[in-house]
Amino acid sequence: MTPLQNLFYYIRDLYNSSDTCFDFEKDKNNPKSKNVNFWEVGELLTLAKKCEQKNITEFSLAINNNLNPLDFLLKLRRIAIPDEPKQPKELESWIEINRSTEIPILTIKQEIETIEKFEQSTQRINDLEKYKEQRLTTLFDLSLPNSLIDWIDLTDNKFLRKPELKVKIVLADNPTLLKIANNFQKEFSEFYQKFELPFKTNRIYDALHTLHYELKGKDNKRIYISFGLVCGKIGNQDYKNFLFNVPLKLSLKSQEFKLEFDTFSSKIFCEQFFVELLDNHFQNENQLIIEERKKDVLLNIDSFNSQQREFIFESDFIRTEYFDKGLEILSVFTKKQYAFFNEEILNYSFQKTPIENQLTFSFSPIIQTKIVESKLAISKDANNIINKINELQANGNLQLIPDFFKKLFSIDGLEIEIATQSNTNQFQNNESKSQSADFGEVKHRSLFPLPYNEEQFEIAKRLNEQDAVTVKGPPGTGKSHTIANLISHFVAQGKSILVVSHNAKALSVLKDKLPSGIQELAVSLVNEGKGNESLKGSVNAIIRNLAQRYEETKVTELERQLTNLESNYANTLNQIYKAVQANTLTLKIFNPITNELENKSAYDWAVYHFEQTNYENQFLKDTVSYETETNGIAEKLVDLVAIGNNLKRDDFDLINFQFLNDNAFIDLNEIRKYDVKLKEINEKINPLDYTNIPTNSIDENLKNIILNYENIFRKFKTNLIAEQVYKHPNFRLDVLVNIINENDGLRKQIEVANNKLLSYEVDLSAIQDTDADILHQQINQIIVKFGQNKTLNWFTKSTLEKPLKRFFECKLNFNPVNEIDQFKILEIEINRLKCLKQLSITFNKYLNSFGITKQNNIQETLKELDFTVEFAKEIIEFNSQLKTRNLPQVSITSDDLTEKISYIKNVNYYAEFVSISTFLQETKQKLITHSKPHPVIYKIADAIENTDRSSYELYLDEYRKCREKQSQSLAFEKLLNEISKTLPKTALFVKNKCLIDNQYTIDKKIIELDIFNLKLNDFLTFVTSQTNGSEKLLANLQTLKRSIEKQTAETISYKTWYHKSKKVSDTQKAALNAWLNDLINIGKGYGKNTARNIASAITNMQVAKGAVPIWIMPQDTAVTFFPDASPEQFDLLIIDEASQCDISSLNLVFRCKKCLIVGDENQTSVVADRSLFTIDRTNELLDKYLISHRFKTQFDVNNKNNSIYTISGVIYPNIVTLTEHFRCLPEIIGYSNKFVYNSDIVPLKTATEKTFGEPIEIHYVEDNLDDEYKPLIVQKVIDEIENYINQFQAQQIKRLPTIGILTLDSSNIKHQNQLIRQISQNELIKQFEDKLELLIGTSREFQGDERDIMYMTITASHSIVEKENRFEIKPPRAATTEEYMRIFNVAASRAKEKSVVIHSIHPDAVGIMNQDCYRKKLIDYYANIQNQTNKPTSTKNLQSLLNKTDANSGDFEKSVCKLLYNNGLGDYLYPQFEVGKYCIDFGLIINNKKIAIECDGFTYHSGIVKIQEDINRQLILERAGWRFFRIQSTDWFYKNSKVSSDLIQWITDNTTE
């Protein structure tokens, strides 16, 4: 067996057990009491009939022999009953009422003993006074009056009056009182006779009410109708239990209870406890016979349990479906009595009295609660997995096993053994990579439709990179929210997802967390009393979606739209960054007031401007941008005026001409050089001879082409054969090339032969007179003679013909040939000669056609012919080049060949001539065509064209003198233009002044002041234009964020259906439709065809399951719902509340490719039933199957720390932790944060108005130390609840809070039961329990749940004993273990608005408790918070508020603080308000509204990282209900009046009720 198989063998054997119950009334952890948690159906039926007769409609039992139940089994409402007769006060001591019976019994006492006070009789008092007076006036002894006898003691002449006496009073002695008593007894008896039925129904109602709270939040206990009672003695053990159990569900709505059949969510099953007693019962028989009998019984039970069944109260149906099956199961017992029927009618009477020496098998139906913790389904599933592993191994498919297990068994070096497969390494090393690649990459975009944080992105990223991720989710940190986002992200990639948890509670809200478009992707099997209606709706939605057509183009379009939204979001974010950072923009400007160059931020300049008086411009006529460079502009204006004053109007005319600088003219030496060169060219050629040649055909390559021609022509002259052939009129190049190509094979053979013969000296003189063809035939004959021999024997050689014998006279390297290898060398040489002969014949024939004599050296001749081909091709190429250049072509045979070559070579001179002439002409054109040329320029141009050096020099000098005259007017124009760029209106104004007034002056200081103020105002205007839009940008950002979330959800939904539609087969679609029809036919899960429909639904579901993108269900449901144990059924398994899931979760891990394990080791963990998982048995199995595993203790189910979460944490230790907490107020989660999570939790919830009082309260109730029920604590809880109901009825609070009551000392069952009993019977609470959503339980029941208000009761026992005038206090046992840490952590983190501790531990006992005790930590924490809350708050004054502002913000925040305070907001104002790890500049809590005012733009707060943090913080806190107003620092000081007004108005608008 492989280690993996051993693991599942361990799970199989470990869970192959169940707790036994031989007496249903003694069910372990669930003792039965009649009419408390079990009811005989026969008695209920009798009661129902009586109610029907009395027309009492509040109690209905849908059983009437052969009539089928309607939509319920039992329906019950509490009956309003008048108060019982009021007992007369005088009968207070005479009446006893026993209320423990169904109908109270009143008893009248005939006599009583009582204590009578002396003062109770006026006669005694008067007689005593008279007696005292008489004693004083007489000397004789006086006898006591009768009224004073026994009251006065005269012993020893004492006169002592007794204050009281015990007296016996007989009722008959007081006829009046007797009559009153008899009348009251009659009235009391008649009252209860009249209301007997209502009282009985109300008792059932109250019991069910209590049971409702007991079952609420508990998955291991449910209610059944049980029948088929087996009663008698089996194996010397009294046995009394039911064979058949039909699941019911109990619902409470509008104070009406309904009991309904629940065969849809749970199967009818047969109990098998009696099998445990068979060994002892048949101990005198052969062991093999006993085992065979047990096997038959178990087979019959398994056969019954393997089928889906229905139940109806019909005699024939129950006879065939249950009674006959029961007979088969109980056939092992020979002595039986049957009490199922009275004749043919079902016998509802309860038959629990055993008959000696035989079993009674009776119908005896009861409604009862049962503990349901059977783990047999897990055991069977583990066995299926083992078989599946064997199957995978046999088929070579072990690579399908999830990577989770590969890593699990590689921790300590163990590997999954695949002995018969050769691809082990590939499986272990590569498969995980391929699976990861298949799982899809986490791209730059994560498809999260809900707000998300970096932790969620990290989880998605890791799931892409590895096969499982462990996530730690402390209380209230949004595990369901996170899971919803991850489901959406991966389902959009086409992944199938299974989400499970230990119980349904953690999953009940998950589907609702998904956006509406994504909810249709999920099928939830979390039954919350809704039957299969929700399931039908989900399946119908999937069918509807799969029937639609999905296009890839639509996917692309949706992603494009999402990309555009994200791009807009990023752009908006960038604009916000720029807007906020605009406050830190700096302006460096000369300040004429300080005479310094100052560089300040916008904020600082705004403050400066705020503090200055208004300034009006005095000289400048323009506006000036702050970005405009104005350095020296004042000086330039002064210089402009100075130049203008020295100019006359006529002096400005020269600016109308454009003068060229000297660079535009040719150097005088260049003119001379061009003149000389042109004369040289004219001497060489006549340019007119070349006018027909295009100048663009003359290039540098022409020289190389001519040179190449001359070289090859010289070589041609040295090759006689080539010259004779080429010049011959019959020469055709193509013919020669063809002949050469045809004989190329012979030439290659010769070449190969030459290479092979290089190391040999071959002598063929002995046979040289023979033709080469004949020699070739002969030598091949000889080679054949050799056969496989190296040499020829003498006989073979002697028989050779004479011509063949000559070959043995040939020599190789001077030695005669004799061996076969030597003859093969000769054969190569002879073949070479043969080829040469053929070539000689062919080419001599060719040469002969040109009159050339035969050539003996044919190889040399072939070289000359090869050159002939090369030369001919070169001539063709040469003429081609000449032709493209429009030059005359040459012919080797023409007479004018030399003249043509000379003409061609001189073309270069013509090219140079053209180049110079063109240059001179272009230069002339440039000079005369420039804008506004001076007239002298035309004379200069003509001199250049004619290369007239003297004229050129003369006119150029004249031009330069004119250019110099222009400089002064241009200086003015240039300066004017420079100024005009910055101050166009001002420059024009100055020019006009200069034209009319040559004595005009200006003041430089005034110009500088004008420029400074203009630039400063423009700068601040620009900055505020940037910052003023930040609020709108933030609003746009929120809108875009919502649009992205909406578009993301739409994209996810469409992409999922697109992927799913590609994968789902027609068979699956058909099965899906069939499944829906089955669900419709099942209806409420009751009827004759229900079992058949459910079985059909299960079959069809197994086929259709791949069509469902998301499955949500409890873990145990998943194991039975997906019986196929094959791996890779789901792409992703998500286990929520994994710390409560034991190792049986590995069964589901095996079915999935990847896993997300979400839990928290600091919350309640797995609790193993020690009766099922004994320590010895568990250790034995661990040693048997997992002894080699280094971490085998992680699989020990008896270790409270162990769970699938801890196993995952061992394999994947880099745990992602969620930290943002949205559930509780900071004071509430503070306990867990401080004592459990090292302050890592970031609480983001803030109290606005304390609707339900302070968030933390603690109450000490001085209850009876010895009374485990703690009635005073119970009463305190009830008083608290009633108080909220009274406030709600008085409209003092807007709504009722949801309430949870958690007993921290879970072992005190009596106290918990007392809470349930008292609360369930409280009439006021009953009226509102739907709205209160009351839940009573321990931390385990509350994990994954929450309420507005939580009451935590502490009832730990302690003692206070008085010894020797002092009290000795013994505190409760210290709760210091990790299990207590988990219990208190869960308890202290369930409340959203208020958490209350109610305890009975004396304060002195608390004081001496162990400091590490979590009970003490909780009490002390709550007491400290409450003490702080109760401290009187100091009055807020302006200075105290200013002191709390951020010191780094300068006067900015202080200025804002003053405005808010002066507008009457001081009492609501909190500077630097902390929300978790975040801090808000100003928090305002007004009318249940949370207002955040942020001061942006101060330098230290305006870095891009800081801005990004601020915006992210705002987005997070807006999710927590905060509304933000952001003030930009520059706006505040530059536009203070407007911004202040806007802020106050915004606060008013957002805080008005």
The N- to C-terminal Cα distance equals: 72 Å
Mean pLDDT score, rounded? Answer: 84
Give the class from helix and strand content and strand pairing. alpha/beta
Shape: flat
Radius of gyration: 56 Å
Low-confidence stretches: 65-69, 411-444
Task: Give the percentage of residues in beta strands.
Answer: 5-15%
Helix content: 40-55%
- Topology, number of strands: 43
Number of helices: 56
Give the biggest sheet: 10 strands, mixed
How would you portray this structure in words?
The chain has 56 helices and 43 strands. The chain has 1553 residues and is of the alpha/beta class. Strands 1, 2, 3, 10, 11, 12, 13, 14, 17 and 18 form a ten-stranded mixed β-sheet that branches. The protein has a seven-stranded parallel β-sheet with strand order 21-27-20-28-29-19-30, sandwiched between helices. β41 and β42 form a beta hairpin. The longest helix has 34 residues. The two termini are 72 Å apart.
